Request: fold
Amino acid sequence: MLKADNSLGIIFFPAFDWAISPTHPEREERLLYTQDQLREEGLFDVEGIDEYKPLVAGVDDVERVHFCFPEVSSVATRSHMVSAGGAMRAADLVLSGEKERAFAMVRPPGHHAMKVVHGSRGFCNINIEAVMLEYIREKYGPKRVAIVDTDCHHGDGTQDVYWHDPDTLFISVHQDGRTLYPGTGFPNELGGPQARGRNLNIPLPPGTSDDGFLEVMEQVVMPILDDFNPDLIINSAGQDNHFTDPITNMNLSAQGYARMNAMLKPDIAVLEGGYAIQGALPYVNLGICMAMAGMDFSGIREPDFTPDAVRQDPRIVKYISEMCASFPELYFNPPPFDGSEKSRDGVISGGWFVRHKDIYYDVDGITEAQTEMVRQCNDCRGLLKIETRSTNNPLCLGVEIPQGACDTCRDEGYRLLEESQLKGGYRYIQFVNRRDNEHVRHGF
Amino acid sequence: MLLGIDVGGTHTDAVALAERGGCMETAASCKVPTDHDDLLGSVTAALRKVLEDVDPATVTRLNLSTTLSTNAIVEGKVEDVGVFVSAGPGIDPHHFMPCRHFFALDGYVDHRGNEIRALRPNQVEKAVNECREHGIRVFAAVGKFSTRHPRHEKLMRRAICACKDENACDLADFVTMGHELGGTLNFPRRVATAYFNCAVWRVYNDFAAAVERSLADIGLGHVHVNVLKADGGTMPLEQSKLMPVQSIFSGPAASVMGIVALCDIVHDSVILDIGGTTTDIAVFAAGAPLVEREGIDIGSHPTLVRALKVRSIGMGGDSAISVLGDEVRVGPNRLGPSACNGGERPTLTDALNMVGESSLGDVEASRRAMEAYGDAHSIPAETLAERAVEYASRTIHEQTRKLVEEINAKPVYTIHELLEGKQVVPRKVYLMGGPAESMRMPLFSRFKLSVEVPSDYSVANAIGAALTRTTWDLELFADTERNVMFIPSLSYRENIPSSYTLEDAKRDALNQLTMHLDNMGVSLDKGEAQITHASSFNMVKDFTMAGRNIRVQCQVRPGVTRKMGSV
Reply:
């Protein structure tokens, strides 16, 4: 009888009754062949590997992370709540000690969903990793966590949610934003003034294959993780770097994915994108499961695989080697926060960090303009205030008192809430006090 | 007149049931000891005893539940099998190697049923020759994803036995092809199931032939014989000769079906069969027994053999009482018969005698044994007995709750099922087995649910065997992009138009199921065949629809043909 070296919980939730639209890549069939492959391989009969039902996330779980306007139920459907609940179940399995590791193979994905949500961007409505992580911190106490995003697209949502959080190291490895949606994710995006170097972007050129990815993992990601020494490592396991993916241009194979995962050894992995549902997902998912369980995955090979399909151009090899040499500096010695008008990283004004952002929601065709403000505080992460308006909603306000906030930030948060309610001018107000677990919604 | 025989571990039970006024009644019944070295002898002895009161000419059907295949596997009385697999990439198939003559051949079929890499004829031939040199006569041919496309299994079969006629061959006596075992996707289980099917094939077929001969001797040559399966259904004897593996572990199923015949079960319920050494727990949802999700384990090998979900725990009438520190325990071991039946160590039955719930055997002996054991552990005999009964009922209750929790935790794959999903909440408990009557009150106070003990429960297993209906299930896969429809268990493949829909698939599945049973001489009542799963996925290529991927499962669900009348 085959036995896994590491016990692994798999939350498999293919949402066979949900799609963005009938021919959209994010549709019912997406995990069908993965299910066929995992079942036919007999993966769930391996000793130590078990399958679990997802939880269903509640409104509070989402509001712990997002300001949803006008409200959670209008931006997140039931499928999103189940998908986030799947990730939460994975977290419970690992943190309760029931399993050593867990993989939430759920859909729809979430890593393009930012702090403020007016609709769907890049097939994502709520950020399932962030909902999971804040659920962990609420239930199991503060944790230092590293999120490594290996989806081919820049995890701009996760970057936005954790921009100011020094306890969350976010590393996104993705296809260069100059050649792919969402067009961001450059090395100079390093985090807010109090979390410099806690947000790292590693853009790779189109055509990067197994060797390139593994070099980046070995030379850049692993040494940084060793230094950061997180309590938990989370992998946003998007699978669209695969050489057969229809909407990207990378050349990673199932073997490459499995080897990358074996090196990273994430405690929890969460499925993100990946739309080569027949030729890639069944094999990549199998590879990730086996790597996480510590099993020998060398026998996995896609039907279309040839060594030529994943051979790297010598120019790419050279480019990546040079990059690997210069990247660790960004974490170990990040350039200080600039704060000048022309840096576009935001300014410090009157004791507050202030930055303006324009955000486009490609799936729903919504344009948002927001002003994000963080109170510069020496005793805690600082009170967060966001004013936002979009083509869907008039001016709205979000206020968050962070976990572990100081008394001053908390009092200031309540003062802001009171003032904005009295003064009016906001259609909806969402207020979250993470310190005392209080949620206030106003204007519905 | 219907006959039912259940060959159990200690007894072989037989009943003859006659119809009166639309219900069945017991016309004769008997218990004879099981002789493990001569199961045929036990069967004929039971039959002869029953036929003392019954005219053989009036018998129309005999349903038989036997431990033959199970014993053959447990005792290692199996034959060497040549196992050929075409696995393709993935988990190394050698992890699932069931026996010595195992050949992993080069070949690769993907999850859609596309052949990515063909078998190599000379590699297959070499494997076949090697088996022949070792005198191997039975073979299993199994391919990964053969339930989508059985090409490799068919090629292997042709290489093993070159002749066209399925029955006679100089080179091989029997070949099991994996896809014939059903459409479930699970390659390791398919390998194990095909292996066991071959391993017990000869010993089972010898037995079946002997049974047929001795039936003719007793004057029952005209009777239609069915064999019980672990899923609470039967298969015709002819069919069982090709699928002997399906006859294993049918004992617990016979008991469960007995309860179905004796009681009118409509709610979510728990069935407890309290035997000598174990208690079997089964769960019913809305009146129907639950079947294992994938299949049962034979030894350490998970298989595709469908079975009723039955949990056995080491708690029965003969389970020994022990004292550990302050705690009084019962089971899980049996250290001999109860004191009331001449044993030494007091048991659950003795405790029940002591507290006055029962008066089985020598009640005085129970008292003496309890007192002696109580003295040795400085516990008054009454307290010891009370706490033993309490421990037994608590254990049964806890294990039942755990089983129900497990059932309710089963993964689901649609939002609808997850949010609206049905949960099993038992509303009633049915008790059977030796100590059933005496455990009724203790279990009632634990479960706080209505607890019913049906009459006739001592031969309920044989009654269940007699009345169980023939069941069958099949899976249908259709791929309108490739224009094929395939039913693995029937090896049936048909070309379909691109316009083929889910409704067409459901209709075809039910028709094929009905036709197949008809060929086996079983006619179905309307509504007995039901669709258990139906899905249709649009397959999209470059943002336009390329076809539909349709999956349908249907079955004749386990049940009894007739109910017992109120006795």
User: Anything to note?
Assistant: Residues 443 and 452 of chain B are 11 Å apart (CA to CA). Chain B has four domains: 2-74+204-248, 81-199, 264-455, 473-556.
